[in-house]
Each structure stands twice: as structure tokens, then as C-alpha cells.
Batch of 4 targets.
Target 1
Amino acid sequence: MAKKSKKQQPSGGTPATVALTAAGVTYTVHAYEHDPAHPSYGEEAAEAMGVSPARVFKTLVADVDGALTVAVVPVAGQLDLKALAAAVGGKRAAMADPALAERTTGYVRGGISPLGQRKRLATVLDASASDHATICVSAGRRGLEVELSPDDLARLTGAVLAPIGRA
């Protein structure tokens, strides 16, 4: 059963929250006022929610040997592109073109969720997620996060857990 507040849940939800509700996953929605001047979407979310940046994960889209791949890493660190490529059996990875990432996922940059994407992409969740009972990821728009168990996130996205983040 989803735990959510009517004040925080946008009417109709986002594709991410709709997917979570349809799957019967327990999650909490966290809404905050997005500041367009903030230099980091993920750090802004952590600050606004009062949550450690180690528990707030950003969703990045990379190109691994010509295939778009989703990487979910803590906002406190960076994505290790070589480790991402290795995690999916690839040789080379580079950040995807932002416009292509937006078109493919159906979300805008800074609001890309690993859940409810327009096209299901291979997904890798940083192994540090398993250190936490719950983590926060984008709910599909800037200023909206969902908190859920890393196991549920991995199961719903088909994610592989691998050490793809670095401090």
C-alpha cells in the first residue's frame, strides 16, 4: 500500500508514481519548491528534504556501446563511466545527449526518474543503495522525489547492483 499525502501527491501522479502504485510498492512522496538557480538538482533535493546526500540518488542516462543505459548513483558522488560499462558487459560509456535522454525517458533533465520511463532501458543501481533501508530518487519532475526500498527499485527497473559510483 502506498504511503502518500494528498498534499504531496500531484493529481494523477507522474508515470513513476503511477508505476509504483500499480506495482503495489510502499513509497513516500516528498515534494519541495525547486529553485532553478540551484547548481545541483540532487543536492537541492537532499537539502530540501533534510536527507543525507548518501541516501538521495540521481538518475543519469549514458550511452554504453551505442545503447542508452540508466545509472542510479548517490548525489554525493559521481558516476564512474568505466564501471557502468563493465556492469552491463560493455566496453565504453559516455553521458548521453540530454535531448535524447529526455525524448527516450519521457522526463526532463533534473526530473528523470528510473521508474515509469517511456522506454525501458537497462538500469544499474549503485551497490551503495543496499546500505540503506530506503533511498530517494526522482519521482519524475523537478521538486518531487519518491522514497522506497532499494530492493523494490531494483526489482521494478530490472536493475543490476554494481559499484558504479565514486566519491
Note: The helical segments are 15-23, 41-49, 81-87, 98-105, 150-157.
Target 2
Amino acid sequence: MSSIFDSLGIDPGIIIIILLILSIILLVNVVSSKMRLTRLERKYKMFMKGSDAQSLEKVFMRKFAQIDRLYEAKEDHEHDINFIKHNMETMFSKYGVEKYDAFDDVGGKLSFALALLDKDNSGLILNAVHSRDNCFLYLKEIVKGESYVMLSQEEVEALRKAVNFGLGNIETEE
């Protein structure tokens, strides 16, 4: 065999060193693989600990049932949210209040005009007029920010506040 290496011009000592290095690399690789396999077996045993395959299947089935219930609850919540959105379109979401003294002999700004509007600026204005002896309440309909009935100055101011509700601080002229 030495004659084969001699005819090729290769020193047999170099071949032995290369094979030794290759054997060491392979040995390190085997040890590393064995350590990974041991860790994986330990994790598998911990996963299966206290459970046989049947009980593990039951655990999975319970989890899938929980997922199904969550999906049904999500569907119910979406239905409820759509119902609320639909109702929000017709609810009063804006308001404006203007307090005033209706008569010279009555102080304390007990009279008021209250505008209640939906998102389309439709709704109503309540005007409560207080005197010393009586209190009168007037209601006027508002459609798209307009009234078909003449509005008092206080009602106009309450309507303006309601229409601009949520647009920031609006300075009033007094």
C-alpha cells in the first residue's frame, strides 16, 4: 500500500493526520448530535409527562372546543357592535345649552335653551322659560341644522353650540 502512496507522491503520514482530523470532527459532530437528541427527549418526556396519548387527545379536543366557543362569541360580539353602530346613528350625540334670564325681575339664569342633535344635526330644542310664578317648556324640531319655526336668540345660540359640538372651544359673543 505504501507503494501506491509513493507512486502518487503522497506521504502516508499526511494521510494519517488528515484521517485523524476527520475522525475528531466526526466525533465532535456525533457528541453534539447526541446532546441535542438528549435535550429533545427530555422535552418530549416533559410534554408527555402524566398523559397518555388518549388524554393528550382529549386536551387537544377541549382546546379546539374552546376555540370554537371563542369564534361563536366573536360572531355574537360583531352582531352586537353592528347593532350599536346602527343605533348610534339615531341617538342624540351633540348638545348645546344656553342659560339666560327670561324676565328682568327674575335672576340667576334659571331659563335655558337645550339643543339635542344627532350626527346629521337633526333633533330638537327645548326652551324652558322660568318666571316668578310659572315655568313654560317649549319644544322645536330641528332638521339638518334648520328649524321651520322662528328661533329666539338663545335657541339659535344653543343650536350653534350643538352643531359645533366636539369641534373644540368655540368662543361665544356676549
Note: The first strand starts at residue 94 and ends at 100.
Target 3
Amino acid sequence: MVESDLQIAGDILSVQHLLQPAPEHPATVAEFVGLARSIAEDRSAWEHLVRYDATTRWYHRLRTGPGYEVWLLSWVPGQGSGRHDHGASSGVLTVLDGALTEHTARGPLSLRAGAQRVFAPGYAHEVVNDGLEGAVSLHVYFPGLTEMPMHNCSPARPRALSV
């Protein structure tokens, strides 16, 4: 194994002057992250579409492109996705408004507006709005989402049984 002197500390994508405009047809993980950030910054493109539904998670396919799709989701307090993965798709999750909690085998992670998570195919997690206010998130899947297998609850987040 060859060692490298190159080390990156922190989030290189947060250094605005290093960001390139999102290409018309993203092809790399960094370009999909850039696409998600550019959509997030253009509130006029998505804010008027958001709906909150207490009976089910609301979602809207915002955009499609060659080999990817972009979804807008809203979360009322207490709503969650259930533990799942995204099949063969990789993805970028961006919190647009509010806060969400991502639960994985490693434990919970709080995600506030502006936070992004990148995941590979087969990555299992549960996303929940544990707050008191609504939340909005943007999800980019590449290739486009064709399946979302649900998983049994993990020991990291046990659920009470209903009787």
C-alpha cells in the first residue's frame, strides 16, 4: 500500500470559491453533491412545492436527468422513513429546512439545514423528524431509485410493539 502526503480536513465542498457550477449532466459523486447544493440554494425552484401531510410522508419528484433523479420530501414532527436502503442507487441527502435525525448501526446523527450525507448502494439507515417543527429534505439518487428495501429494526433504535 502506498502512503500519500495528501490529507483533506473538513468539508472541501464548503469552500465556496472551490466549487464549480453543477454540470448539466453530473457524473461523479462530487458533481451530484454540487447539483444538490445548487438546487438547495435556489429556494424559488422548490419552496412553493412543499406540502406537509400528517398522515403520510409527502414527496415530489423535482427533476430527472440522464441516470439520476431528484426528490423533495417533507417531514412533520414524528415522521420517519423506516429502516431501509436504496438498492443499487447511491445518493445525496440534503436537509433544506428544519432538522432530521439519521439512525444507522453507528448510532444517531443530527442533521440541520444545510447538512449533506452521501451514501453508497446498500447503505441502510432510518431518517426521522425528531423535532417539533416541520423539515424539508432533498434527495438525489444515481442511478434513479428503483427500489427501497425495508429492513427489520436495528438494536440501535428499538421500537415498542403495538398490542
Note: Helices lie at 29-41.
Target 4
Amino acid sequence: MSDEKLVGIVLVSHSAAVAASVAELAVGLAGGGTTAPVAPAGGVEGGGLGTSAELISAAAASVDRGAGVAVLTDLGSAVLTVKTLLAEGDELPAHTRLVDAPFVEGAVAAVVTASSGADLAAVEAAASEAYTYRKV
């Protein structure tokens, strides 16, 4: 299964604990069987709040299986950090995409969809569609 090309998911939060918890939740809800690679990239080196280009780049490299990488973010400066990395062109794996989606619901949708073997466009669509989920 390690040879299977699955879209990788990176979850970027200002908090290492939030990123790790959302990753754990999304993987847990994806069910059994093959699960897409997921990596949290939260906080900054040393454990403080913020975002780290180095942690994001390392997380993206760790989940790259050749099918693309979907990056979901929590708040504004996380988006800016990912956009900067994408603009630099060589800091993230080829076919890395910043996905506009709610962080928790989008992460779950992305991991479930990627785990089914869907391509990057389908993973992005599923995560973005999470904006329409109604809670009441």
C-alpha cells in the first residue's frame, strides 16, 4: 500500500496541538483500510503559536506520494505563509495546492476523499464543499 499514489494532506494551524488534534480526528473518521498520508504543521519551532514555513515544507514533503498535496489552513497568516511558499516554487512538492475550506470539516472531507484514491481536484472539491455543511 505504500506504493499507492494518494493525495497527501497537510493541516496548517497556528497551534501545534490544534493541527495534531484535527489530523487525529480526520484520520479517525476516515475509517479503516488505507488512509491518505496526513501531516500536521502547527505552531513554530520551539512550540510557540504562529506558522513556520520550514514546518509546512517538511510536512508537505512527508506526505508527498506523487498524487499532489492538499494544504488546509486555519487563519490568515497561515494562508499567507503557504501562498509565499507556493510563489517561491521550489519549497513545496509539485502539485501542491492551497485549499479554501473550513479547517475541521474540510480536513475530514479531504482525508476521507483522498483515502478513497481520489485525485487532487476531487480532494479539493470535497474539502471546499464542507463550507455548505449545515449544523442547525
Note: Strands lie at 8-13, 38-42, 69-73, 96-98.
